[in-house]
Design a protein that fits this description.
- The structure is a homodimer.
- The first copy, chain A, is an alpha/beta fold.
- Chain A has a single domain (12-299), classed as Aldolase class I (TIM Barrel), CATH 3.20.20.70.
- Helices cover 38% and strands 14% of the residues of chain A.
- Chain A has an eight-stranded parallel beta barrel, surrounded by seven helices.
- Chain A starts with 11 loop residues before the first strand and ends in a 17-residue tail after the last helix.
- The interface between A and B is large, with 87 and 87 residues.
- Chains A, B: This is Hydroxymethylglutaryl-CoA lyase.
- Chains A, B: Belongs to the HMG-CoA lyase family.
- Chains A, B: Keywords: Lyase, Metal-binding.
- Chains A, B: InterPro entries: Aldolase_TIM, HMGL, PYR_CT.
Chain lengths: 316, 316
C-alpha cells in the first residue's frame, strides 16, 4: 500500500439513508416525515442526498411515495437530489420531478445481478442505453452504481479487470459518474486502494464515489484507504441504516456521522456540520422504530470531556 | 499522511480479553473456565496473551484468581504469557508464577492517572523504578502501557511531545517495550500515523504495541494507519470485550477476530488461525453471559458464500 497521490483535503458525502436505508425497514415512514427528515439533512452541508427510488411500489413498498417525496422537499442550493431508477418508466417519473441526478444500479457479477435486479450485467447495459436515450438533453447527471464491485456474496471474487471493463463500457454509453459499491461488506483496505487507484489513474476526470458497508467492521478503514488513493466522494447512511438482505445479522452501510467524525478529526473538510447531523441521528429511533448501529451518536465526539469519577478501575 | 516505510508483511497479536475484557464484566468467570479459555486461545497462533492482573482482589474482584489462572494454564511454545501488575507486591506475586512478561500501566495525563490508578504519572514513574528493582535479573520482559496516549477523556488533548518524553524517561528506567493505548477511543488515523512514525523513528529497536478501542468506530482504521506507519504489534480483545468505565454506551477494545480478518484479507500474516479463533468467540456468550460486539463472528468471513435468494431487493 504505497502512497501514490497526496491525500485530499476535502471530501463530500452523498447521504443514502432515505433510499438505501429506508427500503429495507420493516415499517413505512409516512411521506411527511420523510420530507421533514430530508429537509433537515439538506441544511447540514451534505453535498448530495439520494432521496428515494422510482421503483415499482410492489418491489419496494417503503418507497412507493417517491414522487411525493421529491416534489415535497425544499431544494437547497448546493445540495443535489439524486434518485435511484431501475428502468425507463422510473426515469420518466424521476425527470418529471426535476431531480438533479439519476442513479442507475447494476451488478458487476452475474448472480448478484440476477438475485438483486433479475437481470445479468449485459441486460443492465442494454437497459442503461435505453434510459440514456430518455435522459438525453435533460441536463440531469447520470451516475451508475456498480454493486458487488469488491466481491459477490454468491460468486466470490469479482476481478478488478471486470470492474474496469464495465466502467469503460458505461462511459462509452454516456454514464457521467460511478459509485463503486461494496454491497455486502467484502472489501478490504488493500483491495480498495488498488481499485481506487486503478480507476482514478484511467479516468482522472470522472467522478468516482465509494459506497461501503460495515458488515465486517472495515467500513471506516476502507473509506480511509479510498481517501488515501485520492477518492473524495463517499456514500454514507445516517445512523448506519441499511444493510444487505443476503447477510442476516450484519450491520449496514457505513455510518454518515461516524465517517464525517473520522475525517473531520483528521482535519479533512467534509463540509458537514457534525453537531447538526448528530441531532438528526438522535431522531432516527423515533422515525424508524428502532436503535441504529452508529457509534458516535452513542459515545459522543472524540473531543467530548467527562467529569472525573469517584473510583478507580485500572483500564488500559 | 505520506507513506514513509513499506507496510509490514507480518504482524502479531496480544490477546487482552482475559484481563482487559473480564475485569469490567458484571460476573466472575470461574477459574477453571478462564483456564480452559486461555488454553484454547493459546493454540490459535496468538503471540501473547495478557492472562490476568495481579491487582488487589478488592480493586478487581473478577481477577482475584490471578495466581491460580497463571499456574493453571498450559504454557505453549511461542506464546508469551503477560500479566498486568500495579505495584511491587503484584510484581512479586507475578514473578512467583513464572510469567514471561509483566505489563505496567500508567497514564500519559494527570487526571486519568488519578482517576484510574490514584496516582499522577510522576508517581507512576517512581513506582515503576521500585518494580524494576524487583524484576532485575529475572529475565522477565517489562512492558509499559501508556494510557490516554492519544487523548484524555478528562483533559482532552495529550501532546505528542508528552508521550515521547514519557517513553524516553521509561526507557531510561529500563522499560523494554511499550503499549500506546487509545484508552477511550479518541484517536484518529492521522494522529495514529504521526505518533507511530515518531516513536519508530526515535526508537527503531524498541517494540511498540498499539492498543485501540472501537468507541467511535475507528478501531480498525486506526490499526490500519498504525500498520502503514510500520507497527507490527497490536493489542486486541476477543469478541471486542472490554470497554471504558468512563464512556458508558461505548463499544470496547478493538475486536481480535475482526482485526485478524482485516489483515489476513489484506494478505498480511497475523500468524492466527482465524477459524479456530472464531470458534472460541462463538463460546463467549456462554462464558460471560451476553452477546459481544465483534462483527465477523456474526457476518462470517468476507469469503463466505451465500445461496441465491428467491426474491430481488435492489440493494446497492
Amino acid at each position: 500500500m504505497k502512497q501514490l497521490t497526496p491525500c485530499p483535503t476535502k471530501i463530500e458525502i452523498n447521504e443514502v439513508a432515505p433510499r438505501d436505508g429506508l427500503q429495507i425497514e420493516a415499517r413505512f415512514v409516512p411521506t411527511e416525515e420523510k420530507i421533514r427528515w430530508i429537509d433537515a439533512l439538506s441544511t447540514t452541508g451534505l453535498r448530495r442526498i439520494e432521496a428515494t427510488s422510482f421503483t415499482s411500489p410492489k418491489a419496494i413498498p417503503n418507497l412507493r411515495d417517491a414522487a411525493d417525496v421529491v416534489t415535497g422537499i425544499q431544494r437547497q442550493e448546493g445540495v443535489a437530489i439524486t434518485v435511484l431508477v431501475p428502468n425507463v418508466k422510473g426515469t420518466e417519473r424521476a425527470l418529471a420531478c426535476q431531480v438533479d441526478e439519476i442513479n442507475l444500479v447494476m451488478s458487476a457479477s452475474d448472480s448478484h445481478g440476477l438475485a438483486n435486479l433479475r437481470m445479468t450485467p449485459e441486460r443492465s447495459l442494454e437497459q442503461f442505453a435505453a434510459i440514456l436515450d430518455v435522459t438525453k438533453g435533460s441536463g440531469v447527471f447520470i451516475n451508475a452504481s456498480l454493486s458487488t464491485a469488491f466481491g459477490c456474496p454468491f460468486e466470490g471474487e469479482v476481478p478488478e479487470a471486470r470492474v474496469l471493463e464495465l466502467v469503460e463500457k458505461l462511459i462509452g454509453l454516456g454514464i457521467q459518474g460511478f459509485t463503486l459499491c461494496d454491497t455486502t461488506g467484502m472489501a478490504n483496505p488493500a483491495q480498495v486502494k488498488c481499485l481506487c487507484e486503478a480507476v482514478l489513474e484511467r479516468w482522472p476526470e470522472t467522478p468516482f464515489t465509494l459506497h461501503f458497508h460495515n458488515t465486517r467492521g472495515m467500513g471506516l478503514a476502507n473509506a480511509l484507504a479510498a481517501w488515501q488513493a485520492g477518492i473524495t466522494r463517499f456514500d454514507a447512511s445516517l445512523g448506519g441504516l441499511g444493510g444487505c438482505p443476503f447477510a442476516p445479522g450484519a450491520t449496514g452501510n457505513v455510518c454518515t456521522e461516524d465517517l464525517v467524525h473520522m475525517f473531520e478529526a483528521m482535519g479533512v473538510d467534509t463540509g458537514v456540520d457534525l453537531d447538526a447531523l448528530l441531532e438528526i441521528t438522535a431522531t432516527l429511533p423515533d422515525l424508524i422504530g428502532h436503535d441504529v448501529p452508529g457509534q458516535v451518536v452513542k459515545a459522543g465526539k472524540s473531543n467530548r470531556r467527562y467529569a472525573m469519577p469517584a473510583t478507580s478501575s485500572q483500564s488500559s
